[in-house]
Specification:
alpha/beta; 2 domains
Length: 284
Amino acid sequence: MQGKNRNAVGLYTNWEELGISNDFIFGKVMQDPYLCKELLQRILSDLTIDHVEYPELQKDIRVDIDAKSVRLDVYVKDEKGTAYDIEIQVADTRELPKRTRYYQGMIDLQMIDRGESYKKLKPSYIIFICLVDVFGKGNHIYTFENLCKEDKSISLGDGTVKIFLNAAGNRNDVSAELKAFLDYVAGKESEDPFVRRLEAAVFEAKKNREWRTEYMTLLMRDQENVEKGIEQGIEQGIEQGKIFGAISICRDLGMSDNDILQRICEKFHLTHEEAKGYLQVELV
């Protein structure tokens, strides 16, 4: 959740003010299989989705202890095994395309076990619902598939699709049904039946005391992580300042670079390469 509907300076949204554009509320609302299926059908109008498996809220994926974990807002599969990851994004973090790449790979790793054929990989869709125009062209929707650079008529056929929806779009490029949803995400009122049902679901979600407690717990955890990161950054800055100060003093004393390297390695418990890096920065 961090970096999506909250930011590093602690500007958090009160529970009473949350709407469908909040990732926590969105995930809770999408636990309704009807709402989730209807949203997917509006986004992917060329597909026929009979039903979806019960959505998983904030699904955690971690391949191994050293891998960066992924927490998906809404992760569902249809009756054919096709996987859909739906994410709400309120700000352009300048890393969304790379995030879709990482999410796609992590989801693929969940689909097949070691030794199984790659043919078992089912199609998958990574869908980001954005409040801002990530690509700046005014589209309501940007769809990406792997095509041959030399001949766009040739598709790689790997079954992966990445979609960015833009609630701030200004083109006539999507159905009235999808535009009604995107307008709702952008904070506009609508008489669309699906939007009205979403509004009712959001209202009911915010009446749930258990969910409110869960949300506040996540908020406090995120705040603690931010504060911890700030403290670590300050400590690191102080330590680096000490190292550069020691280098400056050694230079004033006329010590050679080799002697300086040895001295700061011993004093600050640095490797030779780390010490050399500080020395090179100081020279610049």
